[in-house]
Description:
Blueprint: H1 3-28, H2 36-64, E1 67-71, E2 75-80, E3 83-88, E4 92-99, E5 110-115, E6 119-123, H3 129-136, E7 140-144
Parallel strand pairs: 4-7
Antiparallel strand pairs: 1-2, 2-3, 4-5, 5-6
Helix pairs in contact: 1-2
Amino acid sequence: xxxxxxxxxxxxxxxxxxxxASLLYFKYDAAESLKLEGFLTILLIAILxxxxxxxxxINHLKFAxxxxxxxxxxxxxxxxxxxxxxxxxxxxKKVTKYxxxxxxxRGIVKWEIETVSKHYWVSSxxxxxxxxxxxxxxxxxxxxxxxxxx
Length: 150
């Protein structure tokens, strides 16, 4: 797991929420004039935005913990708990990307790699979207899923 990717996934939702709270604060000019309506608006946005994102993040973090993924020109190697498993690109039948296309948590993605004998799941906390799609651009099909839980 890349620490920078974790920090990015953690910071973006809180920065967006901070921007929304700042806009409401500047609308009311001061914290004293922020009425119950403004406070409830901030609270509702936080609940609707952060709770699903936190559920997805924790779900993917548990899955990605202790897992590493190495991509080469001809193979993909999974390393988990000291065990290594290698798959040749020629053995991969299909790659499906599950994500929420227009939701705030669209950056948390899961992929299903289908081979002849087995299915593998990969989280966007394990590898970046760009790096994964760079290798599988021709084999990836997309499926929109509101909560891509692992």
